[in-house]
Amino acid sequence: MFYLSETLTEISVVAGPASIDLANNIAKRLGVQLTVANLRIFSDGESNIKLGKVGKNCVIVQSTYPPVDTHLIQLLMMAKKCTDDGAQDICAVIPYLCYARQDKAFLEGEVVSIGLVAKLLQAVEVQHVITVDIHSQLAMSYFTSIQNVSSVPLLADYASKMKLRDPVAVSPDSGGANRAKEFARLLDIEVVVLKKSRHRVTGEVSVDEKLELDISKRDALVIDDIISSGGSIIKAAEVLHKKGVGKIFAMCTHALLIRDAAQKIKSAGVQDIVSTNSVPGEYSKVELSPEIASVLKSRY
Ligand code: R5P
Fold it and tell me: For the domain that residue 210 is a member of, what is the CATH number?
């Protein structure tokens, strides 16, 4: 017989419009009540959220992928409603935490947007945030209570079941080196870290073509936290192809895939894209609920 802890029975998992399936899977794993937020979008684009009754402890699941501002305001609305209804503890599960890349003023006059996001969440009494593969440690420093879950073991587990020829893990830039090294360690394969630079004003990306490893005829698993325009993956693919790589697979936590990014990535000779369901869609093949539910179990 399986008994829930007293606190777990008082948890409501609130499914935000951006993460209904993920929230449902988390609630099932915890064996607790799911409350689905009812959404209407008015003709001017404003969101209208309706929530049923919630418990003392609320776990709101809402990834803030594009449209980021809409998903963010919906999250704030849900937290506000839980607070108004007497919730004592609100934990926001935000797999893709928007604005985490704006963690400092890169150019004079820029706003440190992630700091503002942290303040907004605090204003609606979100006590704790759980996110996945946040872009930087610096972004985390703006929150008083935040946990970062790694999706690397889940991605590695998926990769371990793929049919690959002498695979090599590839990080498209030095910022992702630790992630790719951990991924390679779990799969017991070699790793290559590309040297990418991005022009701060034009956004133009370039990659050094010198590699420390012979990758010819070997399959490459290019792993990144975010795929947005696809520019980083496409540049990496160009270099890998020049070196005679076998098949290339792009793996990431957050597949934002803005506009026709997926098409462009495939046209650049990438076999497939594999991401987590932080951003639900065609490529979200890796389920995050096991890791998130286990973090939540240790919290309650
Ligand atoms: C950059 O440092 C990140 O880790 C990603 O590589 C980047 O955000 C991906 O963006 P895009 O797909 O637009 O190149």
Answer: 3.40.50.2020
